[in-house]
Structures are given as structure tokens and as C-alpha cells.
Amino acid sequence: MTGESDEMKKDIHLICKARRDEKNQEGAHKLDEAAKMHRAHEIPSPLLLSGTSVAGGEGRMVCIMVGESSCLGQIILKLIVRPEVTPLQHKLESIATDIGKMGTYIAVLIIHVLLFRYFLEGLG
């Protein structure tokens, strides 16, 4: 996710956990942050992200997160801008609704007047 192009070794969860525990027991003394970042790549990881390229070897994978639950999905959700409805938009929507209702009532009234006129002229 950081855009790094470094190859990282992947292994099964149990082996990764055992290697992490070994490293923690070996280096119980505190390291500065820079040293921790460099050592992070020494321990294999069992996780793959979408779009991962395989440089070599073989393996099997189980997909555990898709869509909005995935890392990329979470990033996309944070980038989506949800438009907020302003008070002016509320008022304009109310006015548009009122104009629509008024137009419908007038149209129905005109149809009734024209039908009434048609029947009066037809009788006379």
C-alpha cells in the first residue's frame, strides 16, 4: 500500500508468527524507529493486497476481504465526497414541489372547464 517496489517474502501464518516471536526474543532491547523500519522487512508476512505481483514461487490464497472492507475499498470510501444539502437547496426543492402541484391542479381545472364547455356546445 505504500507503493514500494521491494520484494517481500511471504509465508504461512504459523511460520510468520514463529519468526516474529524469535526476533522479539533476540532483540528485547529497544531500537530506534529507523532500525525498526528496516527490520520490518526481515520477518515474512502472510498477507497479500490486491494488485500484488508474484516474483517467484507458488502458493494458495484465501480472500478474506473484498469491496468496501478491503484496504483499497476503505481508501476509496474516504475519498468519496458526499454532497451536503444546503438550506437554500431545501427551500428551492420545496418551491419546486409547490409549483409542480399548482401546475397539476391548474391542468386538471383546465381539462374540466374544456370538457364542460365541449358538452355545453354539443347540446346547443
Structure description:
The chain has helices at 13-26, 33-39, 71-79, 87-123. By secondary structure, the chain is mainly alpha-helical. Helix content is 54%, strand content 0%. The relative contact order is 0.07. The model has no long low-confidence stretch (mean pLDDT 82).
The average pLDDT is 82
Number of helices, where a helix is a run of at least 4 consecutive DSSP H or I residues = 4
Distance between the termini: 85 Å
Structural class: mainly alpha
* Helix-strand string: HHHH
Taking pLDDT < 50 over at least 5 consecutive residues as the criterion, the unreliable ranges are none
- Rg from Cα: 34 Å
Instruction: State the helical fraction.
Output: 40-55%
Question: What is the makeup of the main sheet?
Answer: none
Q: What oligomeric state best describes the polypeptide chains here?
A: single chain
- By DSSP, the count of extended strands is 0
Strand content: under 5%
Overall morphology: rod-shaped
Blueprint (SSEs and pairs):
Elements: H1 13-26, H2 33-39, H3 71-79, H4 87-123
Task: Name the descriptors.
single chain; 124 residues; mainly alpha; 2 domains; rod-shaped
Concise description?
The protein has 4 helices and no strands.
